[in-house]
Specification:
Blueprint: H1 2-5, H2 15-20, E1 31-38, E2 44-46, E3 54-57, H3 58-70, E4 75-81, H4 98-109, E5 114-119, E6 132-134, E7 137-139, H5 141-157, E8 161-164, H6 171-181, E9 190-195, H7 202-208, H8 228-240, E10 244-248, H9 254-263, E11 268-272, H10 274-285, H11 291-304, E12 309-312, H12 315-322
Parallel strand pairs: 1-3, 1-4, 1-12, 4-5, 5-8, 9-10, 10-11, 11-12
Antiparallel strand pairs: 2-3, 6-7
The protein binds ligand PBG.
The site of ligand PBG has 10 residues, from helix 7.
């Protein structure tokens, strides 16, 4: 009976009408551009597994952030690559560390750009783990002290939001308490709440030199097989004071994203991670996929599944296309 009275194709005949009934819209205003910052001056080092992405010295980082900002990207998230790494990742919470200096420089030159910092010591530890290591174990509570200091020094440098990504238990609460005590009760926390132990971070680890020297991250990051557990992680982070919760990676975890969307009223972020970027890049370099169509469709799918904010290495290119 439905057919021929109902014809779904009626609303698909005209581009203007298609646009009017479109349920999901991708806008540059919700994209966050991840950037790697390193020591030195006038340096732009290509990341081999992520063609088109670079490690920047602070001066060139400011230029790259400005280019993104002027295309309508409101925010960047920073990852630091220090010259010296040690057991406790002390460079991560040096008030004069690489990210702290990058934040000050960005806020000085681009005061309206939102500067988010990743809070995790893995890029700063000699063993590459996200926590303090003793007898081959990753210690939870001892790591919280480093995270507090790291978040506070980022705030003092002028960061607009901090994003803990280590998956230690209790870090959101610890960072909230530290920020409040230091006079930063206004500073929001974006928690990497459901972060999976994914193979898709490999290019990032090449970029940041943060592959674990032994073992893997499965004692702290989530098992890719678990979805209910993500809801529990999100609940706990919200209870501890998270203002935004994140799912990571994005595209292979859209079910998790949709489930969280159905349960939570907070804004949700999704991270299209390095491996997602590299897969699209490689297929398009081989001539097998159209790069722009592929990343736009991926980003749209992430949005449709429930993300408000999307972290993507394609932010600059996406903004350019979305502004046309
Ligand atoms: C940890 C961190 C990682 C990523 C973001 N924050 C690496 C990891 O957990 O090993 C990965 C992001 C990406 O792959 O793009 N500081």
């Amino acid at each position: 009976m439905a057919f021929p009275r109902h014809r779904m194709r009626r609303l698909r005949q005209h581009e203007s009408l298609r646009r009017m009934v479109r349920e999901t819209r991708l806008v540059p205003q919700q994209l966050i551009y991840p950037l790697f910052v390193m020591e030195g001056k006038d340096r732009q080092e290509p990341i081999p597994s992520m063609p088109g992405q670079f490690r920047w010295s602070v001066d060139l980082l400011v230029k790259e952030a400005a280019a993104a900002y002027h295309r309508g990207i409101p925010a960047v998230i920073l990852f630091g690559i220090p010259d010296v790494k040690d057991e406790r990742g002390t460079a991560a919470y040096d008030p004069n560390g690489i990210v702290q200096r990058a934040v000050s420089a960005l806020k000085e030159h681009l005061p309206d750009l939102l500067v988010i910092t990743d809070v995790c010591i893995d890029e700063y530890t000699s063993h590459g783990h996200c926590g303090i290591v003793r007898d081959g174990r990753i210690l939870n509570d001892e790591t919280l002290e480093c995270l507090r200091l790291m978040a506070r020094t980022h705030a003092q440098a002028g960061a607009d939001m901090v994003a803990p990504s280590d998956m230690m238990d209790g870090r959101v609460g610890a960072i909230r308490e530290e920020l409040d005590q230091a006079g930063f009760s206004h500073l929001p926390i974006m928690a990497y709440a459901a972060k999976y132990a994914s193979c898709l971070y490999a290019p990032f680890r090449e970029a940041a030199g943060s592959s674990p020297a032994f073992g893997d991250r499965r004692s702290y990051q989530m098992d890719p097989a678990n979805a209910r557990e993500a809801l529990r992680e999100v609940e706990l982070d919200i209870e501890e004071g998270a203002d935004v919760v994140m799912v990571k990676p994005a595209l292979p975890y859209l079910d998790v994203l949709a489930r969280i969307r159905a349960q939570v009223s907070l804004p949700i972020a999704a991270y299209q991670v390095s491996g997602e970027y590299s897969m699209i890049k490689a297929a398009s370099q081989a001539g097998w996929l159209d790069e722009a169509q592929t990343f736009l469709e991926s980003l749209l799918a992430i949005k449709r599944a429930g993300a408000d904010l999307i972290l993507t290495y394609y932010a600059k290119e996406a903004a350019e296309l979305l502004n046309m």
